[in-house]
Amino acid sequence: MNTFDLKKYLVENRSQEKEINSKIIAQKINKILPEGLGYKEFAMAVAIILKDEYGSHIHGPFMDALQAELS
Q: Whole-prediction pTM value?
């Protein structure tokens, strides 16, 4: 399994780019997801990351951004 450290990628690339390319990040994440991963398990994993790594102050803005992208 190929590992991808999202936090490391964001820190390393923040100084090089004003905006992180979301499509590149999505491709890297998709490569490490187990085949056949269900949407509930994926959502649970994202929730764990948001709780553990970002904190509750970001939950509302994250959901707003997600909803905007899905619309």
A: 0.66
Alpha helices in the chain (DSSP H): 6-14, 22-32, 39-49, 59-70
Rounded to the nearest angstrom, the gap between the alpha carbon of residue 67 and the centroid of all alpha carbons in its chain is 14
Q: 46 and 17 in contact (C-beta within 8 Å)?
A: no
Tell which residue, 51, 49, 54, 56, has the closest CA to residue 29.
49
SS3 4: coil
Would you call 38 helix, strand, or coil by DSSP?
A: coil
Q: Collapsing DSSP states into helix, strand and coil, what is residue 33?
A: coil
Chain segment 6-54, per-residue pLDDT in tens = 777 777 766 555 556 888 889 889 999 999 999 999 999 999 999 998 8
